[in-house]
Amino acid sequence: MEDTSYRALLRVEGFTELLSSTLAARIASQMFSVLLVLFVLETHHSASLSGIVVVCSQVPGIIVSPVAGALLDRGSRVALMRLDYLMGATCMTTIGVLSLLHSLPTAALLVVVSAASITAPLSRVGGRSLFPILAPKALWDRSSAADSSANVIATVLGPGIAGVAVAVVGPRVALLVPAVILLGAAVLLVRLAVPDMASSETGSVLADAWAAVGYVWRNRVLRMLAGTMTVFNASGGILTVAIPFIVLRGLHGGSTTVGLLLAIMGAGGFMAGLLTGRWGTESRERHLLALSCVVTALAFAILALDHHEVVLVVLVAVIGIANGPLTVAMFSLRQRATDPLWFGRAFAVSMNLNFVGSPVGAAVAGALLTHSVPITLLVAASLALAGGFWPAVLPASSYQPVGQVAATT
Fold it and tell me: Which candidate, 127, 141, 154, places its Cα nearest to that of 8?
């Protein structure tokens, strides 16, 4: 009988190196996301600007993601991941140094943050597309759970380290910490060897990028995930800005408290994700997706009515726990629905369609929070509930892709 334990997964050649590198990079990314919001709130005192900065940190990468996927499917995934890590470290260092020199106008901040976003899909998609390439299919649920857990661990450690760093050295110097971590992530990839794979590129990067958009659109599973996760992730984008705002402005707490709350959310997701990977997701995806969205919506609704300290801690933990099964189900379903020859391109388009809701939610939060925290959280609840509608009403047959989707548009 084939060994499908987590121990067997860690014995897969190259898996530990990839997992370690992506974990380090995600910690740096989570730190940077929190630090940007804290930096703007503490130096510019503007919730609206913090929302704009979050948008600039995400939208450019979403726009170029099909091209990034086409590049990744041409076989240089590891080198392209290292390129993004170096680009991200450079941009983070630039922001920190210019801010320390008091030579960082708002326009320059937005430009540098946008530049870092452009290469982000190379590592975000590159790493995720490598997990199912390295791991045998029998270990995909475990691999997805490990991938999800790395993401969740990053949401635990990243915000926590960011909050402590801001409290100790201030937001300007703290921006240099994720830059160093990203450099470490690049070093961890130096010896990673990836199996050769056939590809189905047409010869033109732009043509491949456009073909990937068509591939995802015709694949009913990936299309369903785009609808569900885009709407659901908008509620997460609201939470990204709302938690620091509530803590700093409403509860008069500090950056350490912000980091602790996000760490609690991540810890809940970590445990729930590991249990989901052990239990398995095949044939259960629709129920996991719908239930997770509903539980998240209820937590947001209650939080809108009462967001004092104890309630905030409990409900943030509930949101994290609900996110664990959703993430593992989504990762595994996307892998099963995608031809391995299209992992880079299809994942790039699918992931970033899913991700597009996050900057929209952040922008909405930036506009609404100064007027009403309860209304902002009720909007988040509505978005989470709407995200669960599609998987709740679609028949089970919609979760089975129709053969292999044609490779060309």
Answer: 141
